[in-house]
């Protein structure tokens, strides 16, 4: 599991409180439940329950996991914590080849990647699917096609994980935004890294340049689809026109979000094992470069709400 927060880029923004209580909640706050996360079922606890657009949403904490994995889910992802459902959980784990970890519903470090990156599917990894349909559209198909073994393992440094959490907090909880255009931009950061590697290695290998071009390409394509929170969409349309690349407008805050999504995105690319290992090392080196320059590249505070529609009673479409 990774701190992508399933609904972080979809409906983690609150739109509750204004909808008539037309149907009772199936689960209560504080209730222990079983939650589907990717191809498996985990023990979880309901932290919050909110009625959104006439549909109940639940903020769950996966027992035994860091709170960075907490996320909003729908009733289709939850089951009552009954003996029958626990047996179903164990049977599903066996089917997934996880016999060693059937008791706890959680596992060693290798397992989070399978479930964590599946979380990326929950957003719109495939395409601009209508908001209400993306979970069901993706949940059954992508999970079956991508195995844990094929996922690129990207270990995000702890200080950058905190940066991701702070980023989520600023935008979804405090109604703030990253002021655009950013300086340095994603393009600037990639150029600085290229210069850094050139000085460190005494020369520049083509592979590093190719990887940086790949990061830029993934960022530009992924940003409007899976890297934005709801409250940032209007800002995106105002800041990025048809002939402008997001990498020339956005900065480190949004670039870091890409690294949460990359394992799942890269899983659909055929990469030989030896190449995959080298790629993981280079991506990790780039993350360490971001960490080393965290104070320079990242904002310490975001802009407060201006005349944005994301503040006050968040009635976002």
TrEMBL record:
Start and end residues of each stretch annotated as Disordered: 1-26, 90-144
Compartment annotation: Nucleus
Molecular function terms from GO: promoter-specific chromatin binding
SUPFAM superfamilies xrefs: Chromo domain-like
CDD domains tied to this protein: CBD_MSL3_like
Pfam families found in the cross-reference section: MRG, MSL3_chromo-like
Keyword tags: Chromatin regulator, Nucleus, Transcription, Transcription regulation
A GO cellular component entry from the record: nucleus
InterPro entries: Chromo-like_dom_sf, Chromo/chromo_shadow_dom, MRG, MRG_C_sf, MRG_dom, MSL3_chromo-like
BP term (GO), one: regulation of DNA-templated transcription
Sequence ranges of Basic and acidic residues compositional bias: 90-102, 114-126
PROSITE patterns: MRG
Domain of life: Eukaryota
Location of the Chromo domain: 26-94
Protein name: Mortality factor 4-like protein 1 isoform X3
